[in-house]
Amino acid sequence: MQNFDGTSLAFTILGILLGTPIALAFSPLLGGHGHGRVSLNSAVAHSLATTDWHVFARIRAQFPSGGSTKTRTNDEELAAAFVALVVLVTIVTAYVRNAVLIAGLMAGLSILATVVVTITFTVLWCRGAVDGRGIAARLAAVYIAVIAGVLSALWLVEPPLHADALDALATALRDGGSIFDADGVHVGVIVTQMFAALFTFGLLIACIALGLGSVAAVYVHSSSRPRWLWKFAFWTNRWAMHALTWWTLFILASLSLIMTSGLGFDWLTSAFAWINERIDALLPATPAPAPAPN
Predict the structure, then answer these.
(1) SS (H, E, C) the chain
(2) Which of 154, 161, 157 is nearest to 263 (CA)?
(3) What is the pLDDT of residues 172-185, one digit of tens each?
(4) Is the peptide bond before 284 cis (omega within 30 degrees of 0)?
(5) Most C-beta atoms within 10 A of its C-beta, which of 150, 163, 233, 269?
(6) pLDDT, tens digit, for every residue of 122-165?
(7) Helical axes 184-221 vs 243-260, angle rounded to 10°
(8) For 183-235, how does the pLDDT look when each residue is reduced to its tens digit (9 = 90+)?
(9) What is the mean pLDDT of residues 100-128?
(10) Which sequence spans correspond to the domains of the chain?
(11) Distance separating alpha carbons of residues 262 and 269, to the nearest angstrom
């Protein structure tokens, strides 16, 4: 029997996430209830209202936090800061050693998200389930997100600015050193790129959730059976169906492009320098020491 390692598990989960929306769109349940074409926006709005179960609010009500007012001591704050520093160093080190792999995964996920969402929405429209206006708007949003994902993936490896940062840190780690042995500018560039990669991955996952949630919304709107399954499928992806979520994600996508290009680090450096200058200007000047009497 062939071993089922972590890579196989990862590909299995990825196949489920990407294949489920397409499989549901091809399901014979669609179009079998005589509803004709429905507005995708109306189906999503109906599903949002139907699955508004306030699950997290009920969980918080069952397990109140208690609101502890204990003040942390200086030693506890220093310990927390040290732990945060160790975690950050570990994450940055792992990121530098796997930056090319992360960029490849990001580019691959961008392409897969495009294929999945395009096929899903095309099948929904061809089978007469939904109108084309809602599909066109969602496809435009997905394509913009995917373009941002591909560019971010390319710039993780070859950014327009500070292109030597990744090589410098990788060389320092390869020679047995740590990120503390590298130039501070290089470390800052890599840290900003690392956060940008997280933003982009979140955007691409939201694209896949948009496809799955849209299919589930059509099933919920048409009262397809089993109803609990389609409602649960939509509820697990309803976070990606809100307009506020997409505005937030597109803002993060714009930031990721700025940060992966290296421009974000330059802007942050200039901003902090400007703030320091303003603070120094507001502080009273230190008087020069009086000359010693003869």
Answers:
(1) CCCCCHHHHHHHHHHHHHHHHHHHHCCCCCCCCCCCCECHHHHHHHHHHHCCCCHHHHHHHHCCCCCCCCCCCHHHHHHHHHHHHHHHHHHHHHHHHCHHHHHHHHHHHHHHHHHHHHHHHHHHHHCCCECHHHHHHHHHHHHHHHHHHHHHHHHHHCCCCCCCHHHHHHHHHHCCCCHHHCCHHHHHHHHHHHHHHHHHHHHHHHHHHHHHHHHHHHHHHCCCCCHHHHHHHHHHHHHHCCHHHHHHHHHHHHHHHHHHCCHHHHHHHHHHHHHHHHHHHHCCCCCCCCCCCC
(2) 161
(3) 777 666 666 667 77
(4) no
(5) 233
(6) 887 887 777 777 778 778 877 887 888 888 888 888 888 888 88
(7) 150
(8) 777 788 888 888 888 888 887 788 778 777 887 888 888 777 778 888 888 89
(9) 79
(10) 77-269
(11) 11
Tokens of 95: 């990121």
Alpha helix segments (H runs only) across 131-242 = 132-157, 165-174, 184-221, 227-237
pTM of the model: 0.70
Q: Which amino acid is it at 39?
A: S
pLDDT tens for each residue of 12-71: 776 776 677 677 666 655 544 445 677 888 888 888 888 888 777 777 777 765 555 556
The answer to whether the CB of 162 falls within 8 A of the CB of 185 is yes
CA separation for the pair 268, 264 (Å, rounded): 6
Query: What's the chain's average pLDDT?
Result: 77
What spatial distance separates the first Cα and last Cα of the chain, rounded to whole Å? 96
Decide: helix, strand or coil at residue 175.
Answer: coil
CA distances 91 to 4, 76, 105, 149, Å, are 27, 23, 17, 21
The one-letter amino acid at 51: T
Q: Report the distance separating Cα 220 and Cα 129, nearest Å.
A: 12
